Amino acid sequence: MTEATWVILGLVGVITAFLLHYAFVTQPRLIAQRRREGLRVFSTAIELRFPGHSGTTRRVLGLAEAVGAELGLSSTQKSNLNLACQLRDIGLCAVPWKLINFHSPMHWSDAEKATYERHAEVGAAMLELVPSLQHLAAIVRYHRANFDGSSGPTFPSKDDLPIEARILGTIDDYVSGERFQGQLLARQHLTDEAGRRYDPAVVAALLRVLPSMSAEARLEDLDLADRAVSSGPRHQAGRDSVGPPE
Amino acid sequence: MLLWAIAVAVTITVAALSPWSMVVKWPMWALLVGLAWVAEMKPVHFQRHGVQLSLSLPFVAGTLLLGGPLLAIFTEAIVLLLALVSRNSIHKPKRTWFWARLNLPIGMISAAVGALGWTAQQSSRADLPLIGLAAYVALYLTVNMLLVSRLNSMMGARSFWEEVRRGSTGAGLTAISYVTFALAVGALMVEGQFLAVPFLILPLMLLRHVVARHNQADELSYETMVALTIMLQRAHPYTHGHLERVGRTAEEVGLRLGIPRRRARMLREAAVLHDIGKIAVDEQILDKPSKLTESEYEHVKLHSEFGYRILLDSPRFSDLAPWILYHHERPDGKGYPHQLTDIEIPLESKIIAVADAYDAMSGGTESSEKRNYRPTLSPDSAMQELERCCGTQFDPRVVAAFRHVLTEQGVLSA
Q1: SS3 category, A166
Q2: Least CB-CB distance to B210: which of A22, A127, A130?
Q3: Of B122, B128, B178, B190, whose CA–CA distance to A2 is shortest?
């Protein structure tokens, strides 16, 4: 073969190497980053619609990342879980505004509960309309499903219940429980319902990561509290007794 | 039809200029056609443009070495036909015909111009076929890009040069890869290593993958916009037509008022998303047929600020968030949320306000699109209403431009 042929084949090799690098290293990172930035829009919209929900997405994201790592998910699964965390409640835009902002969930009638529970299906149907988010539809659709299929949305078989949906459902319930009932009761609820409502493996993983994740969250809270203290007078008697007398 | 005429004319020119060589190694030709067909089977779809990136070029270029320019043009046509027929299922003959009518002459013209380059090179130095090959590929790509841009600009809103600019961004790497791959095909054929040629399909597929993914990344922000409007429609049943119409008219009014094209396109997006904040507003109040109470009205007023806060979170849309924040401000300072005065309100917000008000008054053309609590006006009386509120609620300059646009579209009786 002549020299020219070798040069050309070498060039083909260089271009191939470059394309490989670009396709499997640079590009996925670029797309994932853009997507994450774009999707913040949706959780903001839902949090503005229902101010009671605000702030939960950050906690859910943090816990989901930790549990995903604990369970050894693949990187695709992890990124899907991350995206689904931000999109899990977009179906709430079809739930009446008054139902969530003016009525406490404690006093919902069965019909109202059913209306609320429909948001998972609605969200999934919306995602199916968007080509690049279609693959998240199943996660969102089943994130309110019971692990043993006893109630809630039904799914054909256990294999059709994606692991991401199981993780998301567990964490979602835990975070709102933590918010309204406190950590102890929320943990208790997790262990009580493991195997029925939740996947036992996911519950075990969540309970394993919780101490460190809660410590971080508490530190952040304390940090905020300290800043509040330094910028203004204290109001809470409980905190006063811990701090130095004024 | 003009395209077909050009295609035939250029082909005849090539036939007249180039020598006829009838000694073709047909098995080799069949191999190249097969490879080109495989490469063409899965084209990259540029979703919103309807353009396809063809990957058969390096293999088709290889046929130049076998049978000269005419064979290359013939092969191009055959491969395109094969791919079109096998790609679009038999159930959609109409679609196949549509694509064939456009793609076939475009492919043939590109190939013929490329072949002219080859002939010109060969007439001076016939012993350097690889340079002719490179000339063919380069000319093919250039002509193809220009033709496709022309077609796109005819079908879409963008101008020809803008399409050219869009088409050529990132084209550098693609072009270099194409030329190199074509040279590799040629070099291997000159050496007689025909069995090595099929391996070149692997880097080509990789290139396809990269371009497709790149394209997909561009689509993401568009899809975010679509998903947001879907959300808005679930929260508060808008007609899709309303948002689309407001977007389109806003862009045209913007262009007429001298806003640069890029910004006008952002304005279109902003106009489609202008009520996105209503996701966070009680839909019962929005749909209330009777007059709103003071507190209900205060609640509805929040929507422009909500929209601003939602879009501020996305790097892509944060530039247009302020326009949405101020789309209910009025030149007389009685708008909301910040009671800005005339010179403080962005022009884009004023345009959105006019387009939205007009569409709300005239309503959709179909009865289902009409808002049930307000009688719809004819285009003429809606326009008169806009002009009545000139200076207080709307900017006179914008309303005047709006009238021009509507007259041009033939909506108003001039």
Answers
A1: helix
A2: A22
A3: B190
3-state secondary structure chain B: CHHHHHHHHHHHHHHHHCCCCCCCCHHHHHHHHHHHHHHHHCCEEECCCCEEECCCHHHHHHHHHHHHHHHHHHHHHHHHHHHHHHHCCCCCHHHHHHHHHHHHHHHHHHHHHHHHHHHHHHHHCCCCHHHHHHHHHHHHHHHHHHHHHHHHHHHCCCCHHHHHHHHHCCHHHHHHHHHHHHHHHHHHHHHCCHHHHHHHHHHHHHHHHHHHHHHHHHHHHHHHHHHHHHHHHHHCCCCHHHHHHHHHHHHHHHHHCCCCHHHHHHHHHHHHCCCHHHHHCCHHHHCCCCCCCHHHHHHHHCHHHHHHHHHHCCCCCHHHHHHHHCCCCCCCCCCCCCCCCHHHCCHHHHHHHHHHHHHHHHCCCCHHHCCCCCCCCCHHHHHHHHHHCECCCECHHHHHHHHHHHHHHCCCCC
A30 vs chain B: nearest CA distance in angstroms?
8
Judged by CB atoms within 8 Å, which residues 199-228 of A form the interface with B?
none
Find tokens 């002219």 and name the residue.
B116
* Any B CB within 8 A of A19 CB: yes
Q: What is the pLDDT of residues A157-168, one digit of tens each?
A: 666 788 999 999
pLDDT of B89 reads 55
Q: What is the pLDDT of residue A243?
A: 37
- Both structure tokens of B257: 């008022």
Mean pLDDT for the stretch of residues B28-55: 69
Please state the pTM of the whole predicted model: 0.69
Tens of pLDDT, residue by residue over A35-45, are: 777 788 888 88
Q: How far apart are CA A144 and CA A88, in angstroms?
A: 10
Contact A23 B209 (CB under 8 A): yes
**What is the nearest CA distance from B354 to chain A, expressed in angstroms?**
26
Q: Are A174 and A64 spatial neighbours (Cβ–Cβ below 8 Å)?
A: no
| Residue B306 token pair | 């909500």
Residues of chain A with pLDDT under 70: 1, 151-159, 219, 221-246
**A25 touching chain B per CB within 8 A:** no
Q: Which two tokens stand for residue A159?
A: 């294999």
- The amino acid present at B288, given as its one-letter code, is K
Inter-chain CB proximity A130 and B230 less than 8 Å: yes
User: Mean of the per-residue pLDDT values for chain B?
Assistant: 81
Percent of chain B with pLDDT over 70: 85
CB-defined contacts A:B, below 8 A = 137
Interval B234-287: pLDDT, tens: 888 776 778 888 999 999 999 999 888 888 888 999 999 999 999 898 888 888
Question: What is the reported pLDDT for A222?
Answer: 63
CA pair distance B407, A113, nearest whole angstrom: 52
Name the band, by pLDDT with cuts 50, 70 and 90, for residue B20. low
